Amino acid sequence: MTESLIFQHSRAGRSATGQYPQAGEADVPEGLRRTRRPALPEVSELQAVRHFTRLSQLNFSIDTQFYPLGSCTMKYNPRACNAFAMLPEFLGRHPLAPASVGQGFLACMYELQDMLKEVTGMKGVSLTPMAGAQGEFAGVAMIQAYHRARGDLARTQIIVPDAAHGTNPATATMCGCTVIEIPSLPNGDIDLEALQGAVGPQTAGIMLTNPSTLGVFERRIKQVAQIVHDAGGLLYYDGANLNAILGKVRPGDMGFDVIHMNLHKTFSTPHGGGGPGSGAVGVGQRLLPFMPIPVVGRDGERYRWLDERDLPQTIGRLSAFMGNAGVLLRAYIYMRMLGRAGMQRVAEYSSLNANYLLAKLRQAGFDAAYPQRRASHEFILTMKRQARDLGINAMDFAKRLLDYGFHAPTTYFPLLVPECLLIEPTETEAKQELDGFVDALIAIQREAEQDPAKVKGAPYTLPVRRLDDVRAAKQLNLVYDPTRI
Amino acid sequence: MPFIPHTDTDVAEMLAVIGAPSIDALFEEIPAELRIHSLPGIPEALTEMQVGRLMQARALRDGRPLNFIGAGAYEHHIPAAVWAIVTRGEFYSAYTPYQAEASQGTLQLLYEYQTMMASLTGMQVSNASLYDGASALAEACLMSVRAHRRSTSRRILVPAAVNPTYLQVARAIAGGQKLNFEVIPYEPGVGTTTTAALEKYRGQDITAVVIQQPNFFGLLEDVDALTDWGHANGAQVIAVVNPLSLAILKPPGEWGAKGVDIVVGEGQPLGVPLSSGGPYFGFMTARMEHVRQMPGRIIGRTVDLDGKPGYTLTLQAREQHIRRSKATSNICTNQGLLVTAATIHMSLLGAAGFERVAAACQIQTRSLVAALTKIKGVKLAFGGPRFHEAVLQLDREVAGVLEALAQRGIVGGYDLSRAYPELGNALLVCATETRTDEDVAAYEAALRQVMT
Amino acid sequence: MATIPPNLKYLDSHEWVRVESDGTVTVGISDHAQSALGDLVFVEVPEVGKSLAKGAAAAVVESVKAASDVYSPLTGAVLASNGALAGAPELVNTDPYGEGWLFKLKPSNNGELAQLLDAAAYEKVVAEAH
Fold first, then answer.
1. Is A1 on the interface with C (CB under 8 A)?
2. Interchain proximity A474–C62, CB inside 8 Å
């Protein structure tokens, strides 16, 4: 079941352009004129529709499969969010149109800022970063700006736990900082002694998430905050795991100075096959002057954009306009539909689902990485034993799960736990779905014991078998060339 | 409970399996003094019907004024088929294609996208998108520092006629890695950039030269001369382009003797609605020799265990999830859904469709300029060849005029007087294929009213 | 079980060093390292003539799952780089101590040689890694 490429459906002279009126000639000086047409498809509208519809049918998605990808929060994307965010007035509005004809839109953005402040316990919110990684960048840049404004130029180090998501150290480097890694203890908490040894006059800050990427709550977070603050550094919160604590505890109360939120995780905006996301940032009092612009402000009853004139110490603009407006609208609609009580239920039911799944899987004989801890909204299983005894590793389990109709959990992250599966069911899954997932893992374990080759060769029922990654990287084929096979 | 399926029976059974007395007990590891028990600042939940009414009311308040702004985001007709397919759950609610076998739809589509963008820009390789055009330029500057073996200055020359917000964003994002951006003035009265303005840098260590085509004023630059100057001076050349304009303009891969090194731009004109400012997507294409320095995801074609062709993320070792602190960029999530829209849009239009649209944009802008400059107090600032935007100069402050036009249902253009005070009361106007002759007449009539 | 030739010197970051008869050194990565990386897809070698400080990042070896820096074991100038790796990076996997060599250095500080690990000491490093 291979789909041809759209180019293979093309025929010279065929086009869908009947919809476009024939205009006159373009007027371009000869030296600047394009002489050879680009290799775009030449297909009818039906051919294009059929091709891309068929491609969509090759995908796993939340709408079609249980998708317990740890750290990604694959919860249901409510269709109402899409429908109302795509009202023609919002869709047709130019970002640079005057605020006087954008009060409806700006009201939504302003209220979103306020709601995000409330759930995180922060004093200010900027909606502009376009993804979590951009939010992280903004956060570290604000920390640097803060120290620089105080004349403290020695603070160039960012502390990162060894369990951190790869964007954390990558972000620190992008900001021109050096990364100091500190270890995690076997129980999943940060090594406080190592932290004490790592902080000093060169510490700009620490990047943490809580619960951590290991799926457990950092219980001594107040001491962590104390140690870093006493040394003159600031605390950055990676909000990837906010789904575990929404309405139960707030990063601002834990002592964090700046946070980013992943609206495409916690606030259910669509993952879209790899974006768009939104990495709104929240700040405490100290960092308010440095927020990335623009931010929505209010003068009496009128909303307007605040820019460099209102925030002269801003770290600047991270996008040409104001961030991923359509994503922000969807997050706003979601939060209005959840409301006060609904927001608190997110953490309750995501934790219930995770702990239930963990308990059932442990009862079935699987090994948890942190068996003595409560799961947060996600947890880690390790397949180290299966890899050692049966030669079947986490990747093999993941691939065979696809045959059972489940998207695999996150594999091999965090790097600290060997042969790990990071499992996050989210609160929108029903008990029977979770039970089905457990049954599938039990079945695969049995297959691993009785017929390991079968598991090793999975998947069998998808459009392709396992793909040759090495060949993909060695014999680079990144664009279609009709002259090449 | 919106979106939460649990019944009381479910909860009781699940707690029994966990061995916990209540859901609250699951949070016992959180220190008691940090726990909150309510969110008083969050309003009560609205039903879907109620939130629908709220959003309709807000949308109606903003209405649908007639749009004549470009300045980096352009209104084009998007065939209905595009978003009908993009919002299918299999595209909309899929994740990053890390499990390639379960994501062949997205991966093949991205491979097709990469092919189209490479060809459109005249380059050899494309990534699978960045956040937007401005951040793509920042990433291109950082990439040129990595890719340029001999230059150590980290100096990037940026014409003043490049979108000023793009330069702001480049400074904000790339400044942390000690890049220096130096602005090259445009020719007064002409609005374009000459090699004469670059001459003072001849012989110096310059890492890259940026060229935007068309430039922020809508004018066509002498891209061949500028590209050749950059290369002759040992610099890399970064092109910033409008992808629709490439239907009729020479692509950056053919600029000068050798073509440019890196191409970036805003992909929004390709099937993405204005959407109040985003989400859009940034595209990046480059010479094959630079592929390992490219940030973002890249899709490659390979074979599976049975020798069947398939698609997968490749060159991932450059990316944050593997290389961590030494990654080419920290980018993780990109703009997948918008790239999906662009790919379908490009397939529906084809090269022929794009030519028609581009030509129509030029013609409508020409009509707009002719109509508005008939009005006393309105003149054209720069007369040279342009794509679909033009700079007008008014005899009074632009902000007041724009506000008055907005009250008459017309969003008249972008006020340039803050970014380019030397141009006086300058206004950047744009008419795409979506602005009919009637629309242009309506603008003329409204502006006449406002200007008397 | 990883091979550790007794006549070579090593770093605990898994580089090997062979002192040639003319006083130059050849550098590569060990069998343990190539096995941990998996099939190599790309190798970036240093430019001939480049000066390297001891401990500086000299080359990059890239597999599907990792891209690792290779550090210069000694201070010196690069005399040669293995051009064959451009078309056949897998040589590092199949023959890490022979045809999979990465680069040759002219060392400028002979005192540094003594700081390298001998085969027995490196064997301990590899054992602890498991």
1. no
2. no
Take residue B417 and report the two structure tokens written for it: 């007087």
With 0-12 CB in 10 A as exposed, 13-18 as middle and 19+ as buried, what is B73? buried
Residue B207 to residue B200: CA distance in whole angstroms: 15
Counting Cα atoms < 13 Å in the Cβ hemisphere of B83 gives 13
Assess contact for A394 and A422: CB atoms under 8 A: no
In B148-225, where do the E strands start and end? 155-159, 180-184, 208-213
Strand extents, DSSP E, B90-179? 125-126, 155-159
Q: Could you tell me if B96 lies within 8 Å of chain A, comparing CB atoms?
A: yes
User: Could you read off the pLDDT tens digit of each residue along chain B, which spans 452 residues?
Assistant: 789 999 999 999 999 999 999 999 999 989 999 999 999 999 999 999 999 999 999 999 999 999 999 999 999 999 999 999 999 999 999 988 889 999 999 999 999 999 999 999 999 999 999 999 999 999 999 999 988 978 999 999 999 999 999 999 999 999 878 899 999 999 999 999 999 999 999 999 999 999 999 999 999 999 999 999 999 999 999 999 999 999 999 999 999 999 999 999 999 999 999 999 989 999 999 999 999 889 988 999 999 999 999 999 998 877 666 666 666 676 666 788 999 999 999 999 999 999 999 999 999 999 999 999 999 999 999 999 999 999 999 999 999 999 999 999 999 999 999 999 999 999 999 999 999 999 999 999 999 999 98
Measured distance CA(C58)–CA(C45) in Å, rounded: 7
> Which of the residues C62, C68, C78 would you substitute to probe the B interface, choosing the one with the greatest number of B C-beta atoms within 10 Å?
C62
**Do B301 and B430 reside in the same domain of the chain?**
no
- Are residues B355 and B271 located together in one domain of the fold? no
Residue B26: phi and psi, rounded to 5, are: -65, -15
CATH number at residue B391: 3.90.1150.10
Instruction: Using alpha carbons, select from A54, A170, A16 the residue that is nearest to residue B85.
Output: A54
Tokens of A329: 């609208």
| Buried residues in B17-46 as b, exposed as e (16+ CB within 10 A) | ebebeebeebbeebeeebebeebeebeebb
Of A56, A274, A1, nearest to B82 (Cα)? A56
Give yes or no for a contact between B304 and B310, defined as CB atoms under 8 angstroms apart. yes
Q: Is C85 on the interface with A (CB under 8 A)?
A: no
* Domains in chain C with CATH codes: 9-128 (2.40.50.100)
Q: Which residues contact A66 (CB under 8 A, 6 or more apart)?
A: A405, A406, A407, A425, A429, A433, A436, A437
- Contact call for C67 and B149, based on CB within 8 A: no
B3 within some domain: no
| A344-470 has CATH 3.30.420.40 classification | no
Whether B101 and B245 map to the same domain: the answer is: yes
Model pTM score: 0.94
CA-to-CA separations, A421 to A27, A166, A264, A382, B174, in angstroms, rounded: 59, 17, 21, 6, 36
Dist CA A224 CA B28 (whole Å): 19
If residue B111 lies in a helix (H) or strand (E), which one and from where to where?
Answer: helix B104-121
**E strands present in chain C:** 9-10, 15-19, 25-29, 40-44, 51-52, 57-63, 67-71, 76-81, 103-107
Contacts of A327 by beta carbon, 8 Å cutoff, 6+ apart: A263, A264, A269, A276, A277, A278, B278, B279
- B82 token code pair: 């595009």
Query: Are B363 and B232 in the same domain?
Result: no
Search chain B and give the residue with CA nearest C68: B323
CATH architecture of A80-338: 3-Layer(aba) Sandwich (3.40)
Three-state secondary structure call for residue A386? helix
Q: Which domain holds residue B47?
A: 8-56
CA B372, CA A481: separation in Å to the nearest integer? Answer: 47
Chain B stretch 180-219, residues whose beta carbon is closer than 8 A to a beta carbon of chain A: none
Residue B66 class from Cβ within 10 Å (0-12 exposed, 13-18 middle, 19+ buried)? buried
